[in-house]
Amino acid sequence: MEISELVKIAHANAVAKGFYPEGQKKELGTLLMLVVSELGECLEADRRGKWAIPDEAWYNLDSQTVSQNDKNAWFEKEIKDSVQDEIADAFIRLADMCGYYNIDIDSQIRAKMDYNATREKLHGKKY
Question: Which of 10, 68, 70, 87 could bridge 95 with an S-S bond, Cβ 3.0-4.6 Å?
Fold first, then answer.
């Protein structure tokens, strides 16, 4: 999935699930703190030693092979609340925010990576 596609899907899902009531504005700070909260949950998952070891085959099964209920049960058992799950949540929150603010994050990432390639080691810092 391309990042621009993730942005569209994540924001459309957030709208559909009621996170953007009509006429209600969302502040950047609120959306950023939702990302931070997911990263905090990721830290807690690591502290609990909750790392998912997913079976890649499950990701590629279509609904004709396995029911959505079975996929959900597998997800809840193997992945939910793991480090990987919380990282995914942070990406989804960032994608949603980019959709809300109409940020072309593909172009921004390319520009930033091109710039970073020219910077000195550790960008001139200790770490």
Answer: 10
